[in-house]
Amino acid sequence: MILWIDPWVRKLGYAIITDDLTIKDSGILLQKKESPNREDQFERMIEIEKYFQDLFKNYKITTICMEKLYFTKYNQNNAEFVFWIRAILITMAIHHNCKILEFSPIELKKYITWNWKAEKMLVQKMTMKLFKMQDIPEYNDAADALWLAYLAAKLKDKNTWYQTKV
Fold first, then answer.
1. What are the pLDDT digits (tens) for 124-146?
2. In 3-state terms, the chain is what percent helix, strand and coil (to 5)?
3. What does residue 158 show for φ and ψ, rounded to 5 degrees?
4. Using one digit for the tens of pLDDT, what is the confidence trace for 14-59?
5. Looking at residue 30, what is its pLDDT?
6. Spatial separation of the C-alpha atoms in residues 66 and 6, rounded to whole Å
7. Which residue of 2, 14, 43, 107 has the lowest C-beta tally within 10 Å?
8. Of the given ranges (31-35, 73-77, 121-125), which has the lowest mean pLDDT?
9. What is the structure's pLDDT at 159?
């Protein structure tokens, strides 16, 4: 099974799919605090670790796929915690002998829509089509999670995309 994770602090998206593209689990882990302080962020990291430990216990995950990090001047204040969350999740993947794949947002958009400048709504509509969903995913992160899990399933054995083998 393939686990995809969008490792942001306040809104973390994930999806688990089988190699034949059956969705086993997906969702968003939301942080409920409006203005979290550092201690809140540390507690958040513990919550995320516990949640994913349970996922690893419940599913035979063989591949982890994460979106490569992209920071702008507008989202740098979370960078420190995002890097720490990635470290926790990558360490868990290593302990479970998972293959680790990373894709950039541009690679995702280009593969799905053939347009590296595609809007989030187009990605969500393509998600609905591929996974035969009735409604648009409430969060962009949920659509990204499903698409990156799909991308990992289709390309996990190809050498044309960036991969990290552990």
1. 777 777 777 777 766 666 666 67
2. 45, 20, 35
3. -95, 150
4. 888 887 778 888 888 888 777 778 888 888 889 999 999 999 999 9
5. 80
6. 6
7. 43
8. 73-77
9. 43
pLDDT of residue 135: 77
Rg (CA), the chain: 15
Helix, coil or strand: residue 130? helix
Distances (CA, A) of 92 to 6, 48, 55, 75: 15, 11, 11, 26
pTM: 0.73
Domains of the chain: 2-105+141-164 (3.30.420.10)
- Contact (CB, 8 A) for 48 and 88: yes
> Taking a C-beta distance cutoff of 8 angstroms, is the pair 12, 3 a contact?
no
Please name the residues in contact with 32: beta carbons below 8 A apart, sequence gap of 6 or more: none
Task: Count Cβ atoms below 10 Å from residue 73 Cβ, excluding itself.
Answer: 5
Residues 6 or more apart whose CB falls under 8 angstroms from that of 88 comprise 45, 48, 49, 52
Tokens at residue 88, please?
Answer: 């926790």
The amino acid present at 111, given as its one-letter code, is: Y
Based on the number of CB atoms within 10 Å of its own CB, is 155 exposed (0-12), middle (13-18) or buried (19 or more)? Answer: middle
Degrees to nearest 5, angle at CA 100 with 103 and 120? 25
